[in-house]
Amino acid sequence: MPALPGVIDAKELAQIAKTELNEDPNRTKEDIKAIQSWIKKQPHLHKYINTDDQHILMFLRGCKFSLERTKEKLDVYNACRAACPEWFDNWDAMDPIVQEFIDLGVAVPLKGYDKNGRRVMVMRGSAIDPRRHNISDQMKFSMMISEMLMHEADQSSITGFVGVQDMEGMTLGHATQFSPSLGKKAMTIWQDAYPQRPKGMHFLNMPSLMEAIFGMMKSFSKEKMRDRLIVHPKGDLTMLHEAVGTEILPKEFGGTNGVLQDHIDELRRKMEKHQKWFLEQGKFKSNEKKRPGKSKNHSNLFGMEGSFRQLSFD
Length: 314
Fold this sequence. Notes:
It comes from Tigriopus californicus. The chain is α/β, with parallel strands linked by helices.
């Protein structure tokens, strides 16, 4: 089996973690225990959320080992899980819709890492049929994959993550499934809840009718993230090759890392392997009835439904 591209050896990875994330191996266990001790004192989190060492370490890394930021992000993450059952409950890798989305290549993590050691995921929104597929199912599928990748706790928890959104073939039917409230919810979870370190989101082949969607998502982004949302000229992969290298990309994107189907097959294998893990995830969420003070519900996490005007398309 050929070696995966972009793999960083343990010694170099530890040095990156120390330099970029303030990770001190002599203090890591103590920091994990400090967060676990804090969770035990939170009635809405204790006995309700995942407190495994590796899970806590993932959040510490995502917050550069700031204990206060880690507490805040863990709290928001689990509140979002409670507030969005349509995205976070009933995860089943063998569900026919999930299996269909795998086959279609709706979201495909690429095997290996890019030239900077980061994980890369290709997303193809046009692969779904807007007449048959619900966007909530698509978002749930993306969340399942994202959390599976985080659960693996591989080098991307240190080096970061890059998204490639290929918008070729997206139609008005795809566009009208989006709404500002959905965009706000997705960006809140991505930026404020997940411990992933997003290093860039590359948009390829963007149709003019999707520009309003892009503008909406950008308006919900923090300044640092806005700088990492990159729209590429249609049909031009030059900037993508410069950003991630060709060794990580499949042939369809001008790379040398097999063909996209190879990565789809690997995704199916991984998701089926994680089936038991997926089924267990629905139980992990905050119990907002037990939160001291004001609860974190859907409206104060994401804004009231209907408070945004619907997007209009010419």
